[in-house]
Amino acid sequence: MKRPESYQFQTKLDARGDLSFLEELKDVPFEIKRIYWITGIPEQQVRGGHAHKTDEQVIICLKGQAQVILDNKEGEVFECKLDSANQGLYIPPMWWGKMVFSHEALLLGLSSEEFSEQDYIRKRDEF
Q1: Annotated catalytic sites, by residue?
Q2: What φ, ψ does residue 90 adopt, rounded to 5°?
Q3: Which residue has the higher pLDDT, 15 or 1?
Q4: Which of 15, 64, 66, 116 is most buried, most CB within 10 Å of its CB?
Q5: pLDDT number for residue 12
Q6: Residue 98 has pLDDT above 90, yes or no
Q7: Predicted pLDDT of residue 123
Q8: Helix %, strand %, coil % for the chain, to 5?
Q9: Is 118 helix (H, G, I), strand (E, B) or coil?
Q10: Against a cut of 0.70, is the pTM above it?
Q11: Contact criterion met (CB below 8 Å) for 61 and 39
């Protein structure tokens, strides 16, 4: 079974601003088929509360911070604080996720699959 993994993306520091980047199949272990973002997040907002059957994701908190708590069917727990735009978190399939955000956080997500409601497990007792 694949495990969550924290990533540090390459960053070029410059007086004009820092440039961070990633490359598909090099810095992200899958072909990117969907990109999503979450904005306007209130302080201490909880999101997630689901798992994916096959979808793999990498999430990046571009602004603010997100505390991410993942667990799998075997009872393993993985926690990660995303608080830098050059830091990402790989979330494999079949890990139940929960995120708690700081005020005005901005989250970017990269997904291995196009959106499909059938890929979601939204009820914990079905996980």
Answers
A1: 50
A2: -85, 130
A3: 15
A4: 66
A5: 95
A6: yes
A7: 95
A8: 5, 50, 45
A9: helix
A10: yes
A11: no
